[in-house]
Amino acid sequence: MSRVSKILARCAPALLVLGMLLVAGCHRESTKNTVLTAAVKDQFDMTIQAYKSNQFELDGAVLSALDLGGHFAYLKEQGQLPKSVLLERSDDSKIHKRHLEYLARLVLDYHFTGYYDDKGQLRRIDPLGTKARQLEDYHAPIHTDSDSAPASGMHGGGGGPPGGGGM
Q1: pTM for this model (two decimals)
Q2: 51, exposed or middle or buried, with CB in 10 Å at 0-12, 13-18, 19+?
Q3: How many other C-beta atoms can be found within 10 angstroms of the C-beta atom of residue 87?
Q4: What three-state secondary structure class fits 3?
């Protein structure tokens, strides 16, 4: 019996250290995922936010995808293209698939590295895996009123005067 207690006494510190390393390793991984984007946010050359109706927000200005592409064209002319761009959600909108497709197009056109915030984890945009969408301008939804439609278009008639006009 004393022999068993001596073996346990010698192994107990090693088991204690091993248990602490195991718990520390699990704890480190869980906090890393939640802090990752916030910790590296300042390391990007440019940060863009996703906005409503597939638009983007850059430095407080709301831009369509086409306008954002024009901004990148201007930066290219000035020799100031960013090397890395982060897309994150704004207070008004989350990141939609269209945002990623537009950013993939910009990555292909202007050769920077694009990243996006996926629920606290940083993901790199793969322009070949993501369907790069042609840049589009924003068009507000058109609301038609049936009361304001012209009368000739509603009834279909020919183009002549009413009543037939025969001799």
Answers
A1: 0.58
A2: buried
A3: 23
A4: helix
